[in-house]
Structures are given as C-alpha cells and as structure tokens.
Amino acid sequence: MNLNHAAADAELQSIRERLHQYITEELIPFERASGFTYEDRYSKETVRTVWQRCRELGFYGLQVPPALGGKGLGVQDLCVLKDDVAASGAILFPHILGDWGGPSRIGNLIKYATPDQVERFILPVVRGEMGTCFAMTEPESGSDAGSIRTRAVLDGDDYVITGRKHYISASAFADYAITMCVTDPDKGTDGISAILVELDRPGVSLTYDCLPMTGQHVDADIEFDHVRVPRANLLGKEGEGFRTAMGRISVNRLLHCPTMTGLARQAYEMALDYAGRRRQFGGPISRFQAIQHMLADMATGLYACTSMIMDAARKADAGQDIRKEASMCKLFVSEKCFEIADKAMQIHGNVGVTKNHPVEFIFRRLRLYRIVTGTSEIQRNTIAKAVLAQA
Q1: 225 with 206: CB under 8 angstroms?
Q2: What number of other Cβ atoms are within 10 A of residue 123's Cβ?
Q3: Facing residues of 102 across strands?
Q4: Where is each Acyl-CoA dehydrogenase/oxidase C-terminal domain found (predicted)?
Q5: β-strands 204-207, 234-235: how paired?
Q6: pTM higher than 0.90 for the full model?
Q7: Which residues face 223 on adjacent strands?
C-alpha cells in the first residue's frame, strides 16, 4: 500500500474513533440529560455550543482548506464520516460536521470570497461562531432556479434587495444568507448574483411557518424588504451567481446521500436487533423467511447505495464532472433508503409506527430526501439529458 494512502487511512480511522467516542460518551448523554426530542426547537446558543465543541475536537470544518483552518478532507472521507454520524442515533448529529449552518453550507463558494469576506463571513463559520444558509428557493421557484424573482438593485455603494426566499434549510441557525438575487433581469441566468446578507439587517425577517413532516425546526422563509447591503458583500462577480450555485449543487447532492445511508443503516440495525428479540409463536421473528427476506433486501440495498456513493465520491475527488453520477446517487439512494426504512417499520410492527420512535422518525426524515435538493423527477431529467448527450 502507498505510504501516503496508509497514513490517510489511519488518520480517517482515528477521526472515526474519536467521533464515535464524542457521540456516545458526550453528545448522546447530553441530549438525554436535557430531555431533547427530534421535534424540539433548538436555540442558536445550544447548537453553537455543539459547533464549538466539535471544532475543539477537530471535527468541524474538516472539508475546509488547511489555509482556512480545516484539513481539506476529500469527498470520499467526508462521505464515510457523514454516514457514521447519521447512523449514530444522536439527535443533533447534523451539527457535528457542520451540515446545518456550518461549513457544509459554504461548499466551494469559499474560492469566490474576497479576503474581507473570508474574515467577516467564512472564518467565523469555520470556527463555529456564526451560522450560514444558502438562499435560492422561492415560493414560485423551486427546481426552476433560473426563474427567481428576488431583486438586488445597485444604489450607490449598496444593493437594495427585495424578495422572499422559501423553505431555506438551516436558516433557523444562520446569521447570514448566501442569497441568489437578480441584478440584471434582461440577462436571464446570467443576470443572477450571489450576495452575502446578514440576517439582522433592517428589513430582513424570518417566518417559521414551513414546518416539515419531521417536525424539526430547521427551515424558514426569509423576507427581504428593501434591505440595504454593501456592494462589498457581492460574492464573486455580478451575474455569475447562478453558475456559482450550479457548481455547488452536484457535490452537495452527493453529500446528502451518506446522511441517507446512515439513517437507513440505523433503521436496518434496529430492525435486525428487534427481529432477534421479538418473540412470536414460540421463537424470535427472525426465524420467519418473510422477515429474513426483508433483512436481506435491506442489507443489499445498503451495499448498493454505499458502493454508488463511494464511486461518485472518488470521481469528485479526482476533479471529474459528476453531475450525472450525483443525480444517479440522489435518485437511487433516496428511494432505496426510504424503502429500507419502510421495511424496518414493517418489522417493528406497532412499535415502528409509534410517534417519535427512532424508526418512525427515520421513515419521515428519509421521505423528505426524495424532494429536497431536487426531486427524483428532476434527477431523472438530469440523468436522461446526460445519457442522451452521450448517445
């Protein structure tokens, strides 16, 4: 084995072991002592405590370049860790690696930031001092991102922003939003720009009416009512916001997938354990072929999902365009993991359909992933376009 690869593997294994220790010995006991549930509303102070503790332990911002305080972790390794934390059973697991408001929300946008923006916006997120969100979706603009209506009009040294962003993930924990705005309505997608907007500016308001079926208080609508933002908050060049956003989306879609497999893995392992303990007609239900076949399908599905994800991640780390592969993963993994959760619920019987039982919650959570970051139908469109172009 190449020595560099061996060292990298050893470092990843060390991170995994330390992550497991933190989650099992510190985070989960903290959640239980606090009486946390899946559907609680968590304050920024609570989640920031988790962010900063994870930063102290070296978990937060692992994917960030070393020059900005991270380890420059590749997509493959990040996928492994995301699966681990999602499968852990911790309620606050999305905050460990910075998925909800942390460095994961920034993605490849770091390379467009000016030195001033790095100091004011990027580094505070990496340090767990601030949260951010990516605000593109609007009430009349979901998968059709090119139809956004939020306007940013230049007035002297300021942009004046008016519009509404809808169902913005992690906005409940954010201090600023990376906001897609129309700066030139005559240029279509070439007239869209990315602007960093602090959420405490006059004219910004958040409403929390869009509570998802999981009951988790993560998303909000963001209203911009003639919000003045300095021109220095423009991320990258004017008119390049749409391309910047699209460059982020493929890897972002892929990185949702190990969270799905982690949740599905937790449901599978619970079902496997329950099937061995639950007794009916004089023995464990695991002796029934119907149960055995469900477990076999679940294990096979997890293997297929993980194999797809890691293959796409290797291509991403090699610098390849993974638009097709990311959409294939998002489509297959979201649908297969939901199927795994459905089987886990079936094996658990009435226990599995009990409100806020982990399997019931995972079922609800995985259903969302067939919608977020592009529906299954949008993924099929992307895949079909790619394969037809190659024909």
Answers
A1: no
A2: 17
A3: none
A4: 239-388
A5: unpaired
A6: yes
A7: 164, 205
User: What are the structure tokens assigned to 368, written together?
Assistant: 């969302």
Average pLDDT of the segment spanning 221-226: 98
How many residues in the chain?
391
pLDDT of residue 141: 72
User: Do 17 and 10 form a contact (C-beta atoms < 8 A)?
Assistant: no
Q: What is the pLDDT of residues 42-85, one digit of tens each?
A: 999 999 999 999 999 999 999 999 988 889 999 999 999 999 99
Question: CA-to-CA distance for 366 and 186, rounded, in angstroms?
Answer: 39
At 177, list the tokens.
Answer: 């939003």
Higher pLDDT pick, 291 / 279: 291
The CB density around residue 373, as the number of other CB atoms within 10 Å, is 19
Helix, strand, coil shares, percent, the chain, to 5 = 60, 15, 30
In Å, what is the CA distance from 242 to each residue of 107, 228, 253, 292, 369? 15, 21, 16, 48, 23
At residue 248, the pLDDT reads 74
Q: Considering just the CA atoms, what is the radius of gyration of the chain in Å?
A: 22
For residue 36 the two structure tokens come to 């946390």
Ramachandran class of 252: left when φ > 0, alpha when ψ lies in -120 to 50, beta otherwise: alpha
How far is the C-alpha of 275 from the C-alpha of 352, rounded, in Å? 12
Q: Which stretches does DSSP call E strand in 240-368?
A: 279-280, 283-284
What is the pLDDT at residue 1?
A: 42
Read out DSSP for 180-216? EEES-GGGGGGGEEEEEEETTSTTEEEE-----TT--
